[in-house]
Amino acid sequence: MSLTPKQIRELVVEYLRVLYPKSGDVEITYLVKDTTTDSWKVNVRFKRDMADFFTFIAMLAMDSQGDITQFKEGWHWT
């Protein structure tokens, strides 16, 4: 199964809503497919709560099936 960027964004938003039910303003700032492991590396900027002024960053790793295999808030892929 090959994921499209749109599907990845939907999965990331869904994952963040599980962690932070009031999250919003999700922006993917980095998206690269790692061909050696057949996974995706994603950096995201988001608000934990729509009423928040501050945004947060996180890095995610996602396998080719769309499962999140790694999540680190405050970190980013370079």
Polypeptide structure, described:
The chain has 78 residues and is of the alpha+beta class. The chain has a single domain, classed as Roll (Nuclear Transport Factor 2, Chain: A). 19% of the residues lie in helices and 44% in strands. The chain is built from 1 helix and 4 strands. The protein has one helix at 5-19; strands at 24-34, 39-47, 56-63, 68-73. It is globular, with a radius of gyration of 12 Å.
Estimate the strand proportion.
35-45%
- C-alpha end-to-end distance: 26 Å
Which H/E pattern describes the elements? HEEEE
Count of the domains: 1
* Sequence stretches where pLDDT stays below 50 over 5 or more residues: none
Helix content: 10-25%
CATH topology category name: Nuclear Transport Factor 2, Chain: A
Overall pLDDT metric: 94
The helix tally amounts to 1
Question: Which structural class fits the helix and strand makeup?
Answer: alpha+beta
Reported for the largest beta sheet, the result is: 4 strands, antiparallel
Q: Could you give the order of strands across the largest sheet?
A: 1-2-3-4
Highlighted features:
4 strands, 78 residues, alpha+beta, Nuclear Transport Factor 2, Chain: A, 19% helix, 4-stranded antiparallel β-sheet
Would you kindly provide a brief summary of this structure?
The protein is built from 1 helix and 4 strands, in the order H-E-E-E-E.
Question: What's the arrangement of secondary structure elements?
Answer:
Blueprint lengths: L4 H15 L4 E11 L4 E9 L8 E8 L4 E6 L5
Antiparallel strand pairs: 1-2, 2-3, 3-4
